[in-house]
Amino acid sequence: MTSLGDRILGLGLLVLAVAYGWAAQQWPEPFGGAETVGPETFPTMLAVVLVAGSLYLMIKPDPDAQWPIGKSAFELMVSLVVLVVYTLLLEPLGFVIATTLAVGTLSWRMGAAPKPAFLTGLLSAVVVFVLFNYGLSLSLPAGLLEVQ
Amino acid sequence: METLGFLMEGFAVALTPYNLMFALFGAFVGTLIGCLPGLGPANGVAILIPLAFTLGLPPETAMILLTAVYAGAMYGGRISSILLNIPGDEPAMMTCLDGYPMAQKGRAADALAVSAIASFAGGLIGTIGLIMLAPVLAKFALTFGPAEYFALFLLAFATLGGITGKNPVKTVVAATLGIMISTVGIDISTGTQRYTFGVLELYEGIDFILAIVGLFAISELLFFVESRMGRGRDKMNVGKLTLTMKELVMTIPTQLRGGVLGFISGVLPGAGASLGSFISYTLEKQVVGRKGKFGEGDIRGVVAPEAGNNGASSGALVPMLTLGVPGSGTTAVLLAMLISLNITPGPLMFTQNADIVWGVIAALLIGNVLLLVLNIPLVGFFVKLLSVPPMYLLPIVTMVAFVGIYSISHSTFDLYFMVAFGVAGYFLRKLEIPLVPIILGLLLGPEMEKNLGHALVLSDGDWSVLWASPLAMGLWIVAGLGLILPYLIGPLLRRRMNAAMKENPVSD
Questions:
Q1: B186 φ/ψ angles, rounded to the nearest 5 degrees
Q2: Would the CB atoms of A20 and B195 count as touching at under 8 Å?
Q3: How far apart are CA B350 and CA B49, in angstroms?
Q4: Is the pLDDT of residue B410 over 80?
Q5: Interface test mutation site (partner B, options A56, A79, A103, A108, max chain B beta carbons within 10 A)
Q6: What is the widest separation between alpha-carbon atoms in chain A?
Q7: B467-472 long-range contacts, CB within 8 A, separation 24+
Q8: Terminal alpha carbon distance of chain B
Q9: What three-state secondary structure class fits B330?
Q10: How far apart are the CA of A33 and the nearest CA of chain B, in angstroms?
């Protein structure tokens, strides 16, 4: 069972390839009648190649890589959540606050002490904000800090 | 002579204060990125693309900036090899062999200086090779028809897994996935909506800049979180420069050999900089024989691989500029930039966008001089940077990637997409699916489909046209070899590289 990763990947790709290829056959014939090369020709070829590739992966899988378990899997999830929440809060909270929180949390979870972590976040957020807004005149959202 | 005239025009483009400023900035940032362990040239260029975009730089300036970053990153890679025995990227691996022992003997300053000079020599030789070879190849490529182009694209995919790629099937799968992503959106020839599921944001297809930044930068962050390698390093003592003129003169033949070998392996599809530095080092060891002290801090052991990998980085630009087929991951990212600037790379670029091509080539020459000048006095600064713990640096780099993407479209939809690509990149890298063919598939997919269509229309639907001409047939054969050879040679090469590393047990 040491090659589970590739087998699952192969299965996933097979499903993808079949769905992708099937979808290509459903498109209506383009105006002017079917030609040698329609919109579906190229995708159909790709689907065939991918089916072959995915079958190979399932039949002859490589040994598995080390997958993160326990704590590092948890930390990975945390970083991912931070990235998604950062995106979510970027506009409402504004760039500086959101970035301070995101960079700070990431540094902290990677092993920095909380205080220097959030300070780094604040500092880098302010520097980038000033640089982008005033130096390069590309507006980043000011959010809560907006001066009316 | 004609070439020389173009080159002069190129210098006129590259030497304007505006472009020069960006070349300098790029060279500096590139070195910075290169010397940070974990961030290679491909990541560096990927992160800066959005910036070049949002600044609305003119095409030649944008390309000059990114090429300078590319060259700079190749320069920077050696710093962590010499001081920490950690190669910044694969090509810098061979530099560890003699660079780190030199540093241990208190000759770090000498190793850094001589490797900077070797990088310069390699870069210069590579660029001269590029100047001589590229126009010839571009002329030759003008004879290509759609069928030849289709075969050429296959060749590019087949060889991009590279000599060090492990499983050719995974390269094929990766390329197919990339091309599949490129088919999302409205089909240009018929107007059929393909795989958009009615989502408005998908009508124009998936922006490959999102994919590139996500796959490279975000997945790098996730990998770092998992391995948590970093507490930062103690500041290394660089020591005094004791390099003598005699030693420098002694390394000149090494620099020449390394640069030429590197250039050749850079031009060859799929070989790239890793092979360049490896064969330069091995050849040098054989030429010098027992007189050398390779592995114990022989100065030529630092010069050869550095000249080799910098020669290769210029060599890799040859197929990219002339055929529109990149020879390495980083040149694939550069190609992405060209395509998004609405410039079709390939032979026609030499006539239609001569100012850009020659401006970039001239900028490479200037960049190499800038890098040499920058690297010798600033080496202390870059060394200090190495002692900044990555747990502070990586989040900042990630944030810069977010800012870059956000500034292009001001849409958070794109950011979610980028994160999704990052997660996909993480899993694919774990499963040893190479990322570069995915990017290349995304980039070349539309061109490939267009050429397939043209070829089949011209032949009235006869598929054999794809391999009818001797040239197309030749390309198919080379593509086949490109898939099979890494399978045979790759493990051997990797074993050799690892064996060479093991020969010198260095205490970390």
A1: -85, 130
A2: yes
A3: 23
A4: yes
A5: A79
A6: 68
A7: B467/B147, B467/B151, B468/B147, B469/B145, B469/B147, B469/B148, B471/B143, B471/B144, B471/B148, B472/B147, B472/B148, B472/B150, B472/B151
A8: 53
A9: helix
A10: 11
Which of A11, A82, A110, A124 to substitute to test the interface with B, most B CBs within 10 Å?
A110
Sign of CA dihedral B118, B81, B283, B361: negative
Cβ of residue B407 closer than 8 Å to a chain A Cβ: yes
Which residues on chain B are in Cβ contact (under 8 Å) with A65?
Answer: 430-432
pLDDT of residue B424: 93
Q: Do A39 and B187 touch (CB under 8 A)?
A: yes
Task: Please report residues of B whose CB lies closer than 8 A to that of A13.
Answer: 173, 177
Please state the separation of Cα B426 from the chain's center in Å: 20
* Single pTM value for the model: 0.81
Q: How many residues does chain A have?
A: 148
Cα(B84)–Cα(B379) distance, rounded to whole angstroms? Answer: 14
pLDDT tens column, B4-18: 888 888 888 888 899
Q: Please answer yes or no on whether B231 and A120 come within 8 Å at the CB atom.
A: no
What contacts B392, CB < 8 A, 6 or more positions away?
A107, A112, A116, A117, A120
B186 in helix, strand or coil? strand
The full set of domain ranges for chain A reads 1-67, 68-147
- Please report, as a single letter, which amino acid is at residue B229: M
Q: Do B191 and A140 touch (CB under 8 A)?
A: no
* Contacts with B182 from chain A: Cβ below 8 Å: none
DSSP string covering B333-357, please? HHHHHHHHTT---STTHHHHTHHHH
Cβ contacts of B457 on chain A, cutoff 8 Å: 35-37
Residue B82 Cα distances to A140, B53, B238, B379, angstroms: 40, 35, 10, 12
Q: Where are the alpha helices (DSSP H) in chain A?
A: 4-25, 41-59, 71-93, 95-109, 114-130
What number is the average pLDDT over the span B33-48?
A: 77
Burial tier of A89 (Cβ tally within 10 Å: 0-12, 13-18, 19+): middle
Whether residues B394 and A39 touch (CB distance < 8 A) is answered with no
B123-158 tens-digit pLDDT: 999 999 998 888 888 888 888 888 888 888 888 777
Q: What CA–CA distance (Å, rounded) separates B112 from B124?
A: 18
